[in-house]
Structure formats: C-alpha cells, structure tokens
User: Fold this.
Amino acid sequence: MSHYAPDAKYQDLEPGGIIPQAGNAVEYQTGGWRLQRPHRRDEDCIDCMFCFIYCPDVACPVVEGSVKGQQFDYEHCKGCGICAQVCPKKCIDMSPEGQTE
Amino acid sequence: MPEIKPMEGNHAIAEAMRQINPDVVAAYPITPSTEVVQTFSTFVANGLVDTNFVAVESEHSAMSACTAASVAGGRVMNATSSQGLALMWEILFITSSLRAPVILTVVNRALSGNINIHCDHSDSYGARDCGWIQIFGENVQEGYDNLIQATRIGEDLGVRLPVMNCIDGFFVSHSYEVLQVEDDAAVKAFVGPYPAVNPLLDLHKPISVGPLDLQDYYFEHKHSQLDAYAPALETITKVGKEFGAAFGREYGLLEEFMLEDAEYAVVALGSACGVAKDAVEALRADGVKAGLLKIRAYRPFPAAEIAAALAGKKAIAIFDRAASYGAAVHPLYSEVTSALYSAGQLVPAVDILYGLGGREITPDQFVQVFGELPAVAAAGQPAQPVKYLGVRE
Assistant:
C-alpha cells in the first residue's frame, strides 16, 4: 500500500478502504512465505508456458515470449510447487528453502 | 400532479423504484417482499425503466451483485425479508465497509424457526450491527416516502452508506392504504442523478477495491467508517425536512405523538405505532397524559434525541418486536435505556416483548400497558424489566 505512509492516520484514508491506485498487488511481497524454492533446468525446458499459465501469482516471468532462461520472481513466489507439478518435462525442481543451490 | 391511489405496501415500494429508475436491481424472491421485485420486474419487462434486472440464485448472490454494481458506480436497489436478509448477512458488512449506498427494502418477517412468514423485527434487528442505515416506516405512505428519501440519505457525499427501508410484513406490505403517489418528475428531481464516488468502471482513474487489510490499516478504516454515522443522523434530518418542503410530509429521526406534555409514554417502531396512536388518543380523551415516541431511524441510533424526548416522563414502556436471546433485556429497551443513562436521565422503564411471528397488537393492549405504568413509576424501576404482551401463559 505505497499510497499511504505506514503511520497514516484514519483521517488520511480514502473512504471504503479503497486504494486510489491500481496494480499495487506487486508491492505485497509474499516470497517470505516460501518453504520450497523452484528451480528450472533450462536445458530440458521446451517453453510450453505451463508454469507461467498455472502460477497462481505472477512469479514466472516471460521475456520476449520465453520463460526459458528467466529466474522465478522470488519476491512473490510462495513455493506452492504447482509449476513443478504441471511441467510436462519435469524440469522444475523444488528444493527446501535455505539450502544452497 | 400527485395522485391518490389505493395501493398495498409492496406495490408502493415498487412504484417508488419505478420513479427512481435505479441502474441495477439484483434480487431473489422471498415472502412477504416478493411482490416488490416481482412488480418491479414487470416495469423492467414493459420498458418503463432502464434498470438492469439481474435474477440471481440466492440472496447471498443478490447482495453480492448489488454491492458490486454499486461499487462499479450505479444506483442499486433490492428487497428481501427474514431468511433472505439472514443469507445476505455476510455481504451486508462488506457493502457498508465499501461505503456502497445500496438501498434495500426489508419487509420485516420473523426469522425461522419455527418457520413463520409473518411480521416481527428479528430480521432487521439481526442486521442492526452490519453498518447499514435502518429506517422504519409505520405505514404504506411512509414506506414509499422513506424509499425516496433513502437515495438522498445513503448517497450523500458526507454519508455514503447503504440503507435499509424497513416496513412490517403483511401489516404494511400487503395492506391496501390510501397512498399519495407523487409526480414522476418531482420524485426524479428530488432524488437527482446518482453521484458516483470512485466508481470502479472509471477507466481513467483505476482503483483497488476490497484489498487485504490487516493489522496495519483495518482499525483505521473502521474508525473512518464509524465517523460516517453522526453525519448520517444530520442527513436523515435534513433530507426529511427537504422532503417535507417538496411534498408536504416532513420527517425526522423520531416522531413525537402527543409526547411533549405526556406523563407516560410508549416507545415503539414500525406499524405498531399506528395502533399506539389510537390508544394514546383514546387515553387523552379520558384525561390520561399518554404519549408515543416513534423511532424512525434505528441505525444510526439517535440516542441524544431519544433521551431529550423522554426526559422527565414518569414511566415509559419500550416495545420490542424481537428477542435478544439470553440478554437481560431486548434490543430496543437496551438501547433506549442506555441512551437515557448516557444522558443522565433515570426514567422508570418496562420492556414489553410483543408481536413475535406476526401476533397482532391491539389498541386495548396499549391501553393496558399504559394502565400499568403508574405502578412502574411508583416502584422506580421494575424488578422484572421484561414483560410479555399477548402471549398465552
């Protein structure tokens, strides 16, 4: 909620609890919830986009039509593992968070 | 020109809706409010209004659709009763928190169980803490008038709250009375165009509605919402005066009937007030200084005005048409006596539980209660504050 300062008083808030700007979900970083970290083996990836489509957040970035070679967005990835489940090439591994890769 | 017509309560509500021509009505039928949206849907089908009528699959969906349509930027109306209102309950809080001025006619009906389709106030009382304005009408004319005023009250830029327009099931909803139907153009002029605030469909000013609101902002948002209710009291008074100027029938937060010089008073809301007026007139003819305080605005609760109206009475009887199970006293008594206490007024008071499930109340019963008030006054405070009226025991 970048529109409001953390110490904003109630009088400063818009009625109805709205945020008078759109597209602010990106500011809510949920990566800290993650227990398992996805990692894509790019050599086996066929760019089918299943991980991008199924990701319940927006943590599989697509650059120039390709997920291949892109890092997951670890500021928002909650480690749900859906991408690893749906990957037809099984090229996404989930490893416990906190371990070195 | 205004027209005088015989009309039943539900049709009068639908007639006001036709004149107001809301953008969206999303509804699901339930006795005794069914005729409101049934009649209104024929207006839609016949092209008398431009309303987008959404026939949904439940009251939960109805209020969800109404809230969403209001947030999107439209004037929205609906009607329900009893279990229908209960099923909306989850959404009612969201409607008020989003400051979405949806207008809902509640045709008061007892909550199950056992299943009953007749009038009491358990449905509206059950929703009293949902953040909606609640206005109770006594008769068909008031139901019609209150709906017209509800637009101006809820949509006021200093208020922005949803409004329940409460009328008593069957006693008002299905009773034919003489109704003064105001001129279409006059009603439209009084209501005015809908003043949208931060509409979601304004693509030039995108906003986020209903975001996650945790420990860091939720309490501030609630404080902000709570600050809307005192202005709402002022707005109800202001709109009631303007309605009087426009149509000749002025309304306030309360109606005082022969109250000013009364020694003994009853406090009630809804259709029973019409019965009480008969009793008060009869008692006055016999030299008894009886009076009635009718509560029109139940939410926000006009505590200071009620305390001022009842100050100095020898004893009062507060009529509750719904029980608060397990509470020491019932809702209206609790709030009226709290208002008196807060104002430093100690008025001996008895709580009369009456009329549950549509049990009729007669002028004789009001006379009987007035007859018991001198003893209440002599005792100071009754040992047993709650008395049942009209139940077999």
